[in-house]
Amino acid sequence: MTSTWQALFSIDQAIDHPVVRIVGLTTVSAILLGLAAAWLLGQKKPDLARDIRTRTLTWIALSLLTLGPILAGRAWAILLVCVLSLACYREFARATGLFRHTLASASVVLGILAITFTHIDNWPGLRTGLIAYVPLLILIGAILQDEPKGYVQRCALACSAFLLFGVGLGRLGTLTATVEYRAVLCAIIFSCQLSDVAAYCCGKAMGGPKLFPQTSPNKTLAGHLGALLIITPLSAGLYHLAFAGTPIAAWPHAITLGLLTAALAQLGDLVIGSIKRDVGVKDMGAILPGHGGVLDRCNSLLLVAPIVYHYANYFAGPEIWIPQRLITGGVP
Amino acid sequence: MSKWEFRPARDQALSPAAQAISSVREPGLVSTLGVAISTTLSLTYLKLYHGYRAHGVEHLPTQTPFVLVANHSSHLDHACLRNALPLSLRVRTMPLAAGDVFFTSAVKAAMATRLIGALPMWRKKVGPKALAELRERLEARDVGFVLFPEGARTRDGQLLKLKAGIGMLVAGLDVPVVPAWIDGAFHALRPETWVPRPVRVNVRFGPALRFPTASNDREGWEQVLTDVEAAIKALRPQA
After folding, report:
1. Does A95 contact B8 at a Cβ distance shorter than 8 Å?
2. Positive or negative CA dihedral for B54, B58, B60, B64?
3. Could you give the CA distance from residue B27 to residue A264 in angstroms, rounded to a whole number?
4. DSSP letter at B112?
5. pLDDT tens track for B181-227
6. Which residues of A touch B142 (CB under 8 A)?
7. Which of A17, A119, A206, B235 has its CA at 20 to 30 Å from residue B218's CA atom?
8. Chain A residue numbers touching B17 (CB-CB < 8 A)
């Protein structure tokens, strides 16, 4: 049994795993490529060059802010997921208008913080309970204002937000309880970001009928399928390495998980896209120059993180999880 | 089935830097918490160090929208006015603070917005268009403002000539304008110093004024200015 301190803060073997190295090197290469492209295009197409440079600079910041905590230690990775959940929730709340309802909004934030505690402690039992308690808290708390007009809307928005960002995105934090969490997290995040790029490129490159013309007028069916075909094997390969030594590393499992990842990454993008079109905003935020909001970057993770968690938990069994509750003690 | 009305935050599409100095900024959880804590602390300070008392609280508004106006002689003034309100209204009150003083750097803007919940008023650019966004906030009925019509702190204790901003803001709107006189703040924290002296500070509120029929032009603004100035002066304690 490792000590709590070691489990949460150890930086040993941070870059030993092959998945971490692959992801790290590819990210650095892509950034250098982006910078080179911006420099080369500087004279001929200054607008495009500036766009590429802005996006690449933001990518540098995003990569450091994401990979840094993941490599630094479990506690930092969990904190990263907490910050991402809160940032995504904030953008969702400000886009839908839920932020004006202080009580409902605060309930979601408390729910996210409680989920974060269950990640630090590695206590799945409490997490399962929270999935029931927090919506209950939201429903009951919203009565206290004695304002029934808009009750359904604010409760529905708050519960959905908690499930999407607290529980769904939070599954990334749950996955930090795996023994090789760095590899698993890198595999998921990298697959999702690559899926965004592939979907964008394939969507632009391939013509034909649109899959969901009302929701996503720029993406063609061929583009979706193209991205699916590219990401599935890449993702499967990363999972094969990340889950090495467990039943999921077998190729049938790895490919299934890769296919699920590729499909759900695009569907997560469409979920947020549908929300944006319903509400009537162009981006979920403006905090990332060239990319929009944090939620615009994380939308593919929303559905992929839960599916990887459930798939791994079901097929790989207990051996991938660390065996103790780190703070409250006992068996998870 | 009728469509649900979604109202994204008015500043939703702005970058964080633009949000901080925007007149359409809408406060969220962090600002609400920051204002709740900072106003509780400043109220405690005012009561303990300056024996702060508020008179005429029956004239205070019980709901948004509203505009609190008073004489301006020190940096304590915002707190003196706003802290007379209950907490539930305090967090929905947005002081209109001088843009060229409180919003000049990112750090200052962040503090002004998160701790005080202030909105910038650019003194060099006051005109009907610049105030249109603030007027719209009042019409939407979800905020109250704190505004000092003199536009600057008096240097000698006498009431300065009122600027037209208050007129441009409320002329033609049925929004209560509650006048007040802040007594003692000039001596407690003079404009040229940062060290407050333990001088007693009182606030006296008067009956609300409304200008629903005033025209939104120079004539209407003049009428608003005259009435507001008379109301504020009427609250000054007789020497």
Report:
1. yes
2. positive
3. 34
4. I
5. 999 988 888 878 889 999 999 999 999 999 999 888 889 999 999 99
6. 100
7. B235
8. none
